[in-house]
Amino acid sequence: MRVWMIAEASLYTRLRRELILFADPSLAIPGFEDAYAWMRGQMAQRLPHYQGRWPWWAWVRPPAGRIRPDLRARGAYHNGWPAGTPCVRLGLDIPDAALLLSDFDKWHAVLNNGPLVSSDEEWDAFEALPETQRQATKEATWPGIFAVNEPPEPFWHGSDAPIIQACFETLRLADVREVTTFRARPTRR
Questions:
Q1: What is the pTM of this model?
Q2: Where are the beta strands (DSSP E) in 27-98?
């Protein structure tokens, strides 16, 4: 399956030198360790050859209904790097069995440690639960992020097509099919 990664150009330089890379857990966004641990557990359950390493993240269906990430979208792909940082958009062909697809918007329920609900009524029902039942109840809703072939839910997507992301364990130079270089630009204010 074709997926798209956005990274600093130095990562691609390292990939060309080492041929295979694994994600560095020290680069994970602080505060989201529990969400990443949950995703790694899901990868262990759902990917047959997963070895337990931290995931790489890529776009399958990026924002705005694009086929590949639109590098003009400053807020989506230029945040976090100083203006002028050399970057790359990598088009990768990765075997389907090595990818775990999820809904980007719904993933935020996991990131924010909240329930994956589809209406205000479902939210109210969750809030009415005793505190002792909430963690298990919300975690039981999270596998819904993997229902990527379902019709869009207005509660999560409005009228837009869902944004689909992928997690995978191993970044291989042999999987790179397209490289587009660019420089990070400041977001518009």
A1: 0.93
A2: 56-61, 86-93
